[in-house]
Amino acid sequence: MNHDKQYQLITPSGITDITDWFCDDIRLTHTVSRYTKQDRVHAGNDTDVVRLHFGMKGDYAFSYKQLGRSFDLVGGHHNIMYSNGFEIEIMPKAKEIETFGIQFSKTQFLEFTQNGNEHLQRFCEAVLSGKSVLLSENWGPIDAGIQQVIGQILNCRFTGQLKKLFLLSKSIELLVLSAEAYNYAEKKNIFIKNKTDKEKIIAVRDLINTRLSNPPGLSEIAQLVGLNEYKLKRGFKETFNSTVFDYLTGQRLQLANQYLQETQKTSAEIAYELGYSTPQHFNNAFKKKFGVTPNSVRINP
Predict the structure, then answer these.
(1) Which of 78, 188, 217, 271 has the most CB atoms at less than 10 Å from its CB?
(2) 110, 128 in Cβ contact below 8 A?
(3) Burial class for 1, CB neighbours closer than 10 Å (0-12, 13-18, 19+)
(4) Is the Cα torsion angle 203, 204, 209, 214 positive or negative in sign?
């Protein structure tokens, strides 16, 4: 089975747009919730699955009955969790919350991860015994790699069997990236410890994403979000495993790749639109990242 399903949920608290992709025993879900008032929201189901959860945007708190735990999270986090059925109560703290999730059947997840690292193997032992469990006590940051893969899924242009293979490969890639982030998330010497500072670092990412063609300098970013440059640079590197400059470059080139495949804009037009000084500078940067020239992508996407 491989098909998309788009629908909208309207509640007294607001509107949620949902897109589901189904690929055999894997379900991928993207949700964008826009809240008109901050009321508690209840959600749940009785499926016996392993869940990869990615909080893309917006702050919220939630309690998870099967885990007996509560969490208070800012946008830009992920974890892997298991329970046989789940009931959660969400308290939104932002007007818009965006999440992405992948559900693996218990059997399929164990097949993919049986030879994983020691942390993943301990997680699998809990899954096998039917125990509700989180992979990591600390929620990992959504770095540029994870964000890139989710973006590729959201912008997938394949259909039929190719789309099924694509969704399968990207689901496994996100599973690997999430599992490998465990050691990073478990580090003891965390630099950004204050929730307010973490929110400011997330705001830096969002600011860059909205100004790819005319990016602000570090001093302007620091002034806009209220952080000194040292804390901004070190906090961004810790949160997204990338420097501000490398993140900006990566986002620009991903957008350029999308333009090449989905629009009729020339390579030169894209270069200038995204703020490159010359088409040659853009070509060199694109080839360095993707291993091919912009024109070759246009000819054979």
Answers:
(1) 78
(2) yes
(3) exposed
(4) positive
Crossing angle between the packed helical segments 195-210 and 218-225, to the nearest 10 degrees: 130
pLDDT value at residue 114: 81
| 51 contacts 135 by C-beta, under 8 angstroms | no
Cα 113 to Cα 187: distance, rounded to the nearest angstrom = 23
Q: Which residues contact 252 (CB under 8 A, 6 or more apart)?
A: 212, 274, 275
Q: Assign residue 136 a region: left if phi > 0, alpha if psi is -120 to 50, beta otherwise?
A: beta
Q: Take residue 83 and report the two structure tokens written for it.
A: 């329970």
User: What's the rounded Cα separation, in Å, for the pair 186 and 178?
Assistant: 13
Supply 40's token pair: 């508690």
Cα gap 45→76, rounded to integer Å:
24
| Cβ atoms of residues 29 and 153 within 8 Å | no
Q: Report CA-CA distances (Å) from 10 to 18, 79, 98, 189.
A: 11, 27, 16, 43
End-to-end, the C-alpha distance of the chain in Å comes to: 26
Per-residue confidence (pLDDT) for residue 2, from 0 to 100: 54
Nearest by Cα to 257 from 215, 212, 226, 297: 297
Tokens 């990236």, located at residue: 177
Q: Is-contact 44 86, C-beta < 8 A?
A: yes
Alpha carbon distance 86, 65 (integer Å) = 7
The one-character DSSP state at 199 is: H
Residue ranges, the chain, pLDDT below 50:
1
- Tens-digit pLDDT profile for residues 123-173: 999 999 999 999 988 888 888 889 889 999 998 888 899 999 999 999 999
